[in-house]
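User: I'm writing a tutorial on reading structure tokens. Could you give me a worked example: one chain, its sequence, then its tokens, then a sentence or two explaining what the tokens reveal?
Assistant: Sure. Here is the example chain.
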Amino acid sequence: MNQRVTWFFVRLFAVFLLLFFMVRLAFLWMYPDEFSDLSILEVIYAMLKGAWFMDSSITMVFLGIPFLLSYLPLKWFVSRWYLHLLSWYTFVLLFAFALIAIGDLLYFGMVHRHTGHELAAALNTSKEAMFDMLVSAYWAYFTVLFVVMGFAAKLWKRWMMPNNAIMHLKLGWKRIPFFVIMFVLILLTMRGGIESKPIQSVFAYNEGSMAQGHLTLNGVFATLHSLHQSHMRVPNFMPEPEAEVIVQKIYQSPSEVYPDSTYPLMRERSSIYPAQDKLNVVILLLESWDPDFIDITRELAGKKAYGVTPNYNALVKKGRLYTNFYANGQRSIDGIAAVIAGVPRVPGAGGIGEGIEINGMGWLGKIAKLQGYQTSFLSGSYRHSFYMDKISPLAGFDTYYGSEDLKQLHPNPPKSQWGGWDYDLFMAGQQLYQKTEQPFLSVMFSVSTHSPWALPEPRFKKFDGSSNAERFLNTIYYTDWALGEFFKQVEASNYADNTIFILLADHASGNMSHPNMREQYRIPMLVIAPNLKPGIDDTLSSQIDLIPTLIDLAGWKKVKYASLGSSIVEPRNHRSVMFGRDAMTGRIEDNGALVVRSLDRLVYSEGDASLVTRAEKRLEAQVQVLLHAWQHNTLMKQTVQQP
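And here are its predicted structure tokens:
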């Protein structure tokens, strides 16, 4: 048996199955709350299904062709040098898979799902930042890992090399049908069976349980399948006219009309405050700010405050704090897209910087410019991050800053892996606004609260930093201080009294356990505006509601836009939130219904059956109409002229 090449390949293949089995055990051990509702039978089923489909598929993608070549009637492919080379290739591949699997295991604890498209996006847009972070923050881990790799290589050489006398059975003419059979089996394993479509990550969620799906899927499969660009696929849930009627009814408002039937998502809106003068707008998009770490929102939830956001707490007394507010995605670029374009990520399409920006969009910057505003986008990250140096002018922002454009104000700070420090960013914004002609609109995107949670000065180290949560709290404390310094200068400025300030997060943090799906997207939003009464507001809303809200608060007239949101300050009978989740999208309604689905099936739901059915129908219509608009470039008419 040990002299057969097939047995050699079976051994190599089995090592990968063992790796994925151990990783799944690690998931059950590290995140017991995520899988506590699964029965023993469901756990066993998920692990067997994962091994049979996901693990076998991704492993055979890399081992299938070398395996198949050995059945050709050529001595090269059963020679010692070829099989030894193949064995070491498998070892390197196994090591790479282990790295991805470990990264996915840790990432799961932050966002409660496997990694995917964000890795591809980060590799495309932030290679240098990722490399700097890995080298500076995790060098010790990599040192240990490579030492382990050295010992593993010795064991591999001893136990996993092919037998020197390896050979095939003498099959004669039977080799041809045997080769064909092996080809079909390998191909089917790669595809995940005889399904009409090749297996994808979403196939793990067929049973309708998110927890069971998470255990079935492995991070290597999810990550590698996300690296290739998929073509846009527009579903056909219902006739397009029916879908358009449903969607337009969702956003129906007495302050709006749909001016062009060719563009079913484009609306025209005027402020609900007709006598309102145009106000300046400053949006502060704060990296990973989470209600579980902010003092005021913890206190409102009956939890003990950490004492890290005294300045934010003071600002809350001057503004309106929205406590039932949500991010529309789990990545920074998704938050940026929701704020400046009013669109969520949906399955079947990429995000901003991944292709959809070539379509006509209802960009916030362009809308503001047509209202007579000066516009700017200031980012604490590097200029090229998320392609924002290219997207910013496309989105109508006249001025763009990246971290390279910020003046260093801290004395001898360490290098920030993801760009500049928040204090530098906020002070650059204040200086720009002070000299900018009014009215102006600006977006500032902060990064100091991003992992690995470095600090510019030791004085901001409020906690020991023995855990990720403590290091994150230290950076929250620092950014809160920077906000305090910013607003001190704002109060003495010439624009303070006629400016709307909006403070919100790009997405929730991964440093707090959020088994409840709603909490994985809940973020704080604070609006300080001359025409908005301060207080606490539990109106269901999200990032894509900002554009119509600004139209109202800033006093804009006859604005054509294409946001999939509704004004937060306009009374409505029914509100909802859309959110993106890997190859799926979800919908939360104010009646308690929550649905998550891919383009093919409903994968998760909460609420009464009748409410879920109606929510799913609305979600299907939203996704279909949005994808249809992107496919045909009928989201926003770009020749529209506004006053």
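What the tokens reveal: The chain is about 45% helix and 10% strand. The longest helix spans residues 127-159.
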